[in-house]
Amino acid sequence: MARKDRNTDESYAEDVFDNPPQGPVGVHRGNRSVAARLVPFLIVIVVAAVAGLTVWAVMSGEGAKVMPWKSAATSSQTAPASKSAKSSKSSKSSASESPSASASQSASVSASESESASASPSDSQSPSASPSQSQTPAAAANLTTQVRVVNGTKKTGYAATRASVLQKAGYTNVVAANPSGSLPAGSVVWYQNEADVATAQDVAAKLGISNVRQVSNLSAPVVVVLMN
Predict the structure, then answer these.
(1) Strand order in the sheet with 222-226
(2) What's this model's pTM, rounded to 2 decimal places?
């Protein structure tokens, strides 16, 4: 076989591809500037800021100040103001009516006072008459109660002398005696039962003794111990 000649670059005719233009062509591009690379990031930041402000304005209610529906909010606020104005007018009217009401009340009070004043003379007489009827007489001394007069002094016949004072006062059962047990520090009138309180107090008054006490197991209903 005859050997074929190899194809070389010189065997082809020159065309437009053998003289390419100067500089990068196709995907082989040069480096971009800093401003061109930062623009996308700036756009993203601005969009995010605008979105955040919009959400904040809606959630906080601040957006109503710049939004078209601000007029609706102001109209809703005017309604309570009109209600407050009506309430103030009603309070003023009630205040204007209050003097007449107070005048009528004062008139009724004066009328009631005049009625009470007219009725007071008859009422003032009833208390003066009622105490005399409601008061019960104090318990009187029983002059028949046995009274024992004990001489605790060294004066002979002193018990009999003081017993005679009681006898002259109307007591019919008075006995003079000498002491048989312990003696008190001062003159005293002893009584045994509550029924003898008035008698013991009367005996103490007749003999000038201020000490009156209740004691059990006495030899007589009323016992007088003379110590001075």
Answers:
(1) 174-177, 147-151, 222-226, 188-191, 212-214
(2) 0.41
